[in-house]
Amino acid sequence: MKLSVGIKVANSLSLTPQLQQAIRLLQLSSLELEQEIQLQLDSNPLLEKIEEQESNIESLEHIEAQEREDKDLTNELNADFLPDDLPVDTDWDDVYTHQPTSLGSMEYEEREDNRQGYLTLQEHMQEQVNLLHFSLVDKLIAHCIIDSLDEKGFLDCVISEITTSVQHLLESMDYDDEVEDDEVLAVLKLIQRLDPIGIGSRNLAECLLLQLESLPTNTLYKNEAIMLLNHYEFLISNELSKLVKQTGMNTDQLKSAIALLKSLKAYPGADFENKNLDYQVPDVVVLKKDDRWLVQLNPDILPKLRVNPFYAGMIRRADQSDDNQYLRNQMLEAKNFIKSVDERHKTLLKVATCIVEHQRSFFEIGAEGMKPLVLREIAEEVELHESTISRVTTNKYMLTPRGLFELKYFFSSHVGTTSGGEASSIAIRAKIKKIISEENVRKPLSDNVIANMLKEDGIDVARRTVAKYRESLHIPSSSERKVLI
């Protein structure tokens, strides 16, 4: 085989840095985009926000006007005479206006801090333990117990593990005391009666029992509720007929005792969960106006960027110096970044508008009107690749009159109908939830009956499909939903 050198012309795809940046910005959430913009603003002197520049110009004009007014006032006060008709009710604020010496407003304004600090469950329990007259060993046991509490307030380990932990701590402190499980159990009993009652319980039955014991002795149906907890396994499995047989109660007593148990706290640590909730900022807002659904980008997350005109004016065409070349590169990067952000918003708006057109029935009647939709359909309509649609709809949220939804929510698989059409899995879940909500609680519908009811509506699904959708909605089975009292 002879070796030779030749030239070959071929077409190939390559990702330019600008295209890579545009693709990366597409998949960023609104918070990540804000962080990326701030990073670019800090690193590129030729990139700036329009709002900041405009606010500075407005503040400058306001200060200049104030300075002219102050100069006129100074000239009047320096006059050789004062008018005789000066009003006697003139306030000092009318002739003196405080003006900061620097451009802009005051650095800060003194206000009362009304923010509330929330104690964690462990901190709340530590404060109470510190007020008790515990010995050193008992205090170590109490601290180990508190550290072993889970977010619901239950004890997340066995007594022997706490005993071993306390023993290791004592040995590290050169103490020769021996700790037994009975000592740990005694401290645990004291902690369980602190606030909240039932903290440190090993299971739900123990937590409810501790709360019942703390109630006044004359509480109605207290003894009956304690009796029910002795047959906790039948109560959990909703076997009410066995409870009646084992306890000897009548229907009214059983109903009142169960109502008393429901009034108690199932999780003693629920009140100490983190109150700082994460709120999602919508990227797209959908509104109905004149029987039309309008789609627009959230103006609060739209950055208004531009190239700094001052630095751009310093660039000289024929100058090949390092400084001039640096400004050229920074201006090119700023323009490419602004273009990439603009393309991101245009693509997001285009895809969101297309989704709203496909899911118009969802916005009109709710989840039952959801239609089956896949990425390929949107990609073909907006003439983009499926991977681009996937990036655009990831971590992007749409605010609608029916709530806040991720764009991915509007894409779902389909199930065949008896008429030859297709139904969305989200719509089928909504129908199952509606059917179960309207059922007779004494005779709940089985999955087979629900499947037959859906077939009557033209949706051909099997019983196991109904069971799968029901479990995804966290709805128990018909035997667990049955209520006899």
UniProtKB/TrEMBL annotation:
Keywords: DNA-binding, DNA-directed RNA polymerase, Nucleotidyltransferase, Sigma factor, Transcription, Transcription regulation, Transferase. The keyword Methyltransferase does not apply. Pfam families: Sigma54_AID, Sigma54_CBD, Sigma54_DBD. GO terms for molecular function: DNA-directed RNA polymerase activity. Residues 325-482 form the RNA polymerase sigma factor 54 DNA-binding domain. InterPro entries: RNA_pol_sigma_54, RNA_pol_sigma_54_core-bd, RNA_pol_sigma_54_DNA-bd, RpoN_core-bd_sf. Residues 119-311 form the RNA polymerase sigma factor 54 core-binding domain. It comes from the Bacteria. Sigma factors are initiation factors that promote the attachment of RNA polymerase to specific initiation sites and are then released. Belongs to the sigma-54 factor family. PANTHER family: RNA POLYMERASE SIGMA-54 FACTOR. This is RNA polymerase sigma-54 factor. The lineage of its organism: Bacteria, Pseudomonadati, Pseudomonadota, Gammaproteobacteria, Moraxellales.
